[in-house]
Design a protein that fits this description.
single chain, 3-stranded mixed β-sheet, alpha+beta, 6-stranded antiparallel β-sheet
């Protein structure tokens, strides 16, 4: 099917629908009269008759009660009858439209509808999508269905066409988790991580028991969050381990995530569990066990650095809690009281704040630059301040509407501090 045949089919169907709607709209107008060749609208006449009867009854009552005499009664009655006859003569007959008027409406309704569709907006993207469907639609379907592994050379001459065709194909088969999985692989190859995660989340929701999909989803989410386990990826990993406690990939991600979250004892527990699982398998696993030993030593070093850091307790004033949104971001940092880049900083999802409070550890592990660390600042006797801010936009710089607290100055050896977020940035 060529683009011209597709457009032709679309126009034909559009005209047919417009014609049907036009006929339905003017259907009452097309009905022919049955009882009179020139039917009258008797509604006004009926009202006049009702009024005439009421006034005639009033005159009769006035005559019987002696308010008016018989001569006056007869004159008023004749006047009412004359007015009623005049009103009847003025009633306009209903004009039935002729065949020419009917044809004009029937023809112009679909014509104007089609003109409005073509002229109101730019339809170029629609035509381009149709062209992509005609050219590489079958290739996209073969790729997503797993019938082929690589597209032919001619199909990737215009990569946008193939991507558009694949996305359209997936939405047409929205319940096929395999297609969503393969679409995520395409996005990953294009380094479109957010789109890949969205496709993976669709695949996971469609097939939560598929271990491969679940592991891939957790892994991509883990690295997209810069080595942090958010609530969703943690839940996915826990589901994997509940069904397969010896799943090595899930155990490794849990160990790395707990270490990144400064839960060092839990991280060492996962490393120990993974080491025992690998050691129990037949064969030589010296290299894998050596890597785990290095990871364990690295966790010990991180724990030592964290112990030399500062534990920050962030509290949000109760009056500001209604202003906190689900997609906000929490920024906590330690910097020089004179300003400049922070020596340690963390950017966390707002879910870390529970019941208006969060406890965050800041240390050399959270340095933004290798040469600008909390340890070096203390060695140089730099006066430090802790700041905390809730950002609505997620930007590192403060913006109007953000929630913040006053900087809290800490001593050189201080390891704990409380910061209250109690004001809104004007």
């Amino acid at each position: 099917m060529t683009i011209f045949s597709t457009v032709g089919l679309f126009i034909a169907l559009s005209l047919l629908v417009a014609l049907l709607l036009g006929v339905i709209t003017i259907k009452p107008w097309l009905k022919a009269p049955h009882s009179h060749s020139k039917p009258l609208d008797n509604q006004l006449l009926d009202i006049n008759v009702a009024v005439f009867r009421e006034r005639l009854a009033e005159l009769k009552t006035d005559k019987d009660s002696g308010v008016i005499d018989d001569h006056h009664y007869q004159n008023q009655k004749l006047e009412l009858e004359r007015q009623l006859l005049d009103a009847q003569r003025e009633v306009s007959p209903m004009v039935t439209p002729g065949i020419k008027s009917r044809l004009i409406v029937i023809v112009w309704v679909p014509v104007l509808t089609a003109m409005a569709y073509l002229m109101v907006g730019d339809r170029t993207p629609v035509f381009e999508l149709w062209a992509a469907e005609d050219k590489v639609g079958q290739v996209a379907d073969d790729l997503l269905a797993g019938r082929i592994d690589q597209p032919p050379a001619w199909a990737i001459e215009d990569g946008n066409q193939l991507i558009s065709a694949m996305q359209t194909n997936v939405y047409r088969h929205a319940s096929d988790y395999n297609r969503w999985m393969r679409l995520s692989e395409l996005f990953l190859s294009l380094e479109a991580t957010d789109s890949a995660l969205e496709a993976l989340s669709r695949a996971y929701r469609l097939s939560p028991d598929n271990e491969e999909i679940a592991t891939t989803y957790a892994q991509i989410s883990f690295f997209a969050n810069k080595g942090q386990l958010d609530a969703n990826s943690r839940r996915v990993l826990e589901n994997i381990l509940a069904k397969n406690p010896e799943h090595e990939g899930a155990q490794m991600l849990m160990a790395m995530g707990e270490a990144r979250a400064s839960n060092f004892d839990q991280a060492q527990g996962w490393i120990k569990r993974l080491r025992e699982s690998i050691a129990a398998k037949p064969g030589d696993h010296t290299q894998a066990l050596s890597s785990l030993d290095e990871l364990s030593a690295n966790v010990v070093m991180q724990q030592q650095q964290a112990s030399e850091g500062v534990e920050v307790t962030v509290k949000v004033n109760a009056s500001l809690l209604p202003l906190v949104k689900a997609d906000d971001t929490l920024f906590v940092a330690i910097r020089d009281v004179k300003g400049g880049p922070p020596f340690a900083a963390k950017r966390l999802p707002i879910s870390n704040i529970k019941q208006g409070e969060a406890v965050i550890s800041l240390s050399d592990l959270d340095a933004m630059m290798p040469e600008r660390t909390l340890g070096s600042a203390r060695s140089d006797k730099v006066q430090l301040a802790v700041i905390a801010r809730i950002s609505h936009s997620g930007n590192a710089t403060a913006e109007s509407g953000d929630l913040s607290g006053n900087p809290v100055v800490i001593g050189a050896e201080q390891t704990e501090v409380n910061v209250e977020i109690n004001q809104q940035v004007p």
